[in-house]
Amino acid sequence: MAISVLEQGKNAYFNMIMNKINGISIPDMVSSDGKSWMKGNYFEYDSAADNVDFITDTQNNAIVLSCRKVTAKFWSEDFRYHYAPLLTASGRLEVDLNTIRVDVGFGFSMRTLPDGRTVPYITGQDVVVKINRFDLSISIWGSFWADTIDLIKPFIKGPLCDAIEQTLYSALDVTLPNMVNKGIGHSDGFLHFTKSFELDWETPSSFMVTPLAFQADIKGLFFDNAYGEVDPAVAVPVMPYFDSLKPELYQNYYSTYSLDGLTAALLEEKPFAGWINKSYNTTITTSSVNALLPGIQSYYGDVPVAIKYTVSQLGSFACAKDVPMLNGITTMTLDFWALTADGPQLATSLTLSQTAIGFGLITNNMTIELQLATTNVGKVVVNSCAFGKLSTILLRTELNTFFLAFTPIINHDLAANVITVPSNVFGIFMLSNLTISYYDNFIYFGLTPTFIPRALAVEEKLAIFQ
């Protein structure tokens, strides 16, 4: 994704992070003689920042968010200051921290899981917490004398501010990255979409920060856990990266390797089925398919025919750079139903295996329409035939002719089943203007993202630190 897009959400990201440490405890502070103390201390993030800088630290492969004007409060619920035998102040202490510089950055590398897979590893990077000691306001509620605030100012500006800085620095530099890493480790490199549908993923290389883009190379294999993982018998192609010459600022390259795993897992869970000419109009009749299925017209007369297709296998996908077609190998069943006076009757059922198909992907804003382009039938099995005996040798030849002749009708029906690509990403970005192009064994999905300015709503959508 382009850095210019990520930068749109800089204020929301920063506020999300600061809200994760909001209310953090500051260590109790007790004097050496035990007569003065601050106990029950905590830090409170005061307001949503709106002046955050987004910085790419390419040398350390990191992204940094920097805000020079963070406002916050320090509270001590149990404050006691003993100055002299008869001079002791106690109560509740509040310090307004009116100007704090906070830089929080995350560096990206990798770690290896016990099973040998590699996943992202996050480290704190370029973290800075600096309180302006000359922009403080101190308030005390309880028992104190007029000069108490002046007497404790050196302590507030010194040890107390040091303790706040050290605590926040540790939280931003160590604690939060560790929480992210713990969450990644807890996933063990798996994403669970349904009870049985999962994604086994890893990152062959580290996330990459460049001046123009944030790039991630993820190897993913979808599978149905009822059947286990089946690695596609194809090599994993080399992935292209962000192309600054393309107008789309969110660029996703989806490999044919991952597509093989996705379709295999989906079809294991439920074969893909549909109808051609389901309404039994006269675009397909026994007379128009008689060359393919000799004897069907004489048996039923000239009546409408509907075709139910059931795809049980689809894979071995391949595509080539700048060739607008996705090729694959499929196994499918075709059931031809003739509309008789007594209602629809199954005329014949055919299974086509080792069948090569090619189709295009047509986009219309955020929808994708499949359009059949080429078909080359491999092997044919006649499962049943109500009107005679069919020759599988003749069927193989005539099926190719049938698909060629009826491609417009097939595509008309396919057009009624478009795929809608989600446009709302976690309530953070709206995606639009989907564009598809082709690389060697990668399909490129380019989109235009627009940040949704919802301030702290990011926290509601991305619970990455939970």
Give the fraction of residues assigned to helices. Answer: 10-25%
Mean pLDDT: 89
Largest sheet: 8 strands, antiparallel
Give the low-pLDDT segments. 455-466
Q: Tell me, what is the CATH class of the largest domain?
A: Alpha Beta
Rg result? 33 Å
Number of helices: 7
Task: From the 3D structure, determine the CATH topology of the largest domain.
Answer: Bactericidal permeability-increasing protein, domain 2
Q: What distance lies between the first and last C-alpha atoms, to the nearest angstrom? A: 24 Å
**Overall geometry:** elongated
Structural class: alpha+beta
Would you identify the CATH architecture of the largest domain?
Super Roll
| Count of individual beta strands | 24
Number of domains: 2
Provide the β-strand percentage band.
Answer: over 45%
